[in-house]
Structure formats: C-alpha cells, structure tokens
Amino acid sequence: MRDGEKKQSRKVVHLFQKRWVFPTVYIVCAAVILTAALWFQATNDKKKDPKKPSAPYSQQNDAAVPVTKSSEVVKMPTANADQVAVKKKFYDDKATAQEQEAALVSYNNTYSPNTGIDIAAKDGKSFDVTAAISGTVTKADKDSLLGYVVTVDSGNGVTTSYQSLESAQVEVGDAVAQGDVLGKAGLSEINKEAGYHVHFEIRKDGTAVNPEKFFDKTIADIKAEQVTAPVKQEEKQPAKDEKQNTDSKQPAKDEKQQEGSDDSGNSGKTSDDTGNNEQSGGLDNGNN
Predict the structure, then answer these.
(1) Helices and strands (H, E) in the chain, number of each type
(2) pLDDT cut 70: percent of the chain above it
(3) Which residues contact 228 (CB under 8 A, 6 or more apart)?
(4) Which of 99, 153, 185, 280 has the fewest CB atoms within 10 Å, measured from its CB?
C-alpha cells in the first residue's frame, strides 16, 4: 500500500519537473480568472442599465413636408371651382383689341395690363382661397392697395401669388400642400368693381404667364412665352401728320399762285384803265 503511494507521488513529482507543466497551469488559471471577471462585469451592467425594447417606427413621428413634384397638376385656387368664375382675364399681347381692353385694370385714371386673373364667387360672397400648387410660403403680409398678399415658391422658377385676400392663415416659411387654405377672398383698392375676389398669378422665372392656360396641366408644362411688344399707333402717327402737313402746304402754294395770277390780272386791268383815261383825255383835248 505504501509502495503504491510512493510510486504515485513520484509520478507527480516527475510530472512537475517537466518544463511545460507550470506554464500550462498558469495559462489555464489566467483564462479561468479572466472569464469569471468578464462574466461578473456583464452581469452587473445588465442590472444597472436594463435595455428597453425599441418602439416600432411610425411615419407620424416625422413632420410631413410637402414636396412639389414636376408631375403635380395645377388647380384652381379654391376648393369649389364650379362655384367661382373669372371676372377679369390675363392681358395677352396676342389677344384681340377687344379682349386686351377688357383685361386692362383702371386705377387713379391710369390703365395697366392685368398680370393674372381675378376670380370671384358666383354669389358675390367671400370664399376660401387654397394653394394651387404645393410649395413654401415666401411672403405673407398686408398691402394698403392689394390687401393681404401670399406668395408660394414651388421651385424650378415657378411661383404663385394670391392677392386681394381679406385675411392670411399662413406665415413666411410655412410648407403648404396643394389644397391647403391660405386665406379668405377679399377686396382691393386696385379692382373695386370685382368685389370679393382673389387676384391669382403664376410666374415662371419672374415672368407672368396666363394661369388659365396651365390649369389641369403639370408644373413641368409651365413655360414663359416670349412677349412681343405691340406696335403702338403713336409710332406711325408722325408719318401721317407729315403727309397732312404736306397736303396743308399745297393749298398755300396754289393760293400763292392764284394771288400772283390775280395780281397780274389786276395789273392788266390797271393798264387798261390808264389807257382808257389817256384816250378820254385826248378826246377831251380834241373837243376843246
């Protein structure tokens, strides 16, 4: 029994005498200690700051920002297009003289071309004015002559203007979608005869275009036409006046010629009278 124990202890001693035994023991002990430390730290972190389940994503968390697409269709600036009518049309230089005259705006004894269209309700009452195109409000203030004015920039050089408003329900910087209420139709000093109305303009790169041509068309279709200045009648008037002056000078020349002929006739008549007088004098002397 003792001999067996001695043999076993000898084996253990002999095992520890080998070079690789102690390094191996150290490595194993270090690995166990490190593993225990990491496990202990992870357990404490979970107890101090437990993770909450993430909430599901919802589009309601983000504010909706209207984006104007080139495919958006231009609409009338009112929710009920069938209940309004165009009272004064856009001044088109290619229209007839009668249509151009009807598109002139009279104020303070002066006439100016209408750069938009004036829309009024058929019953003559005020109505809600809505955004014809989506965009960002760049102007929303009151003018002493035009009433409240709201301007919406839709990008790509396209802007819409809403004038003669009784009130404005938007502010500068607001993002509006098509159909959003901008204000109420009101009165303006420029066009009193229109009553409650909204003066609506569409501009492309700063040039006013006829809104009626682009209703129910996409924003990409809006293009500014090259405006040709009409020839004024006053430019041709001087030639006509010059011709009249020439004609007026002609009778004066004829009159001068006639006076000359009359003078010649009078001179001849005077000569005849002188001859007759001399002849009468001769007869009188002969009788004497």
Answers:
(1) 4, 12
(2) 63
(3) 93, 94
(4) 280
d(CA 161, CA 248): 54
More confident residue, 236 or 163: 163
**Listed residue (92, 72, 76) closest to 84, CA to CA:** 76
Q: Among 231, 230, 232, 212, which Cα is nearest to 222's?
A: 212
* 4 vs 10: CA distance, rounded Å: 10
Classify 91 as helix, strand or coil. Answer: coil
Minimal CA–CA distance to 133: which of 193, 207, 205, 76?
76
Q: Report the sign of the C-alpha dihedral through residues 82, 87, 88, 94, in that order.
A: positive
- Give the 3-state secondary structure of residue 227: coil
Alpha carbon distance 94, 91 (integer Å)? 9
Amino acid at 227: V
Q: What's the pLDDT band for 230 if we cut at 50, 70, 90?
A: very low
Cβ proximity of 122 and 85 under 8 Å = yes
What span, in angstroms and rounded, lies between the C-alpha atoms of 110 and 99? Answer: 18
What pLDDT, in 10s, does the model give residues 72-101? 999 999 999 999 999 999 999 999 999 999
| pLDDT at res. 179 | 95
Contacts 24+ apart (CB under 8 A), 92-95: 92/210, 93/227, 93/228, 93/229, 93/230, 94/228
- Please tell me the distance from the alpha carbon of residue 223 to that of residue 150, in angstroms, as a whole number: 22
Looking at the chain, list the stretches that DSSP marks H as alpha helix, in order from N- to C-terminal side. 2-16, 21-48, 97-102, 233-287
Alpha carbon distance, N-terminus to C-terminus of the chain? 222
Q: What is the pTM of this model?
A: 0.57
Closest by CA position to 140, among listed 188, 183, 76, 198:
183
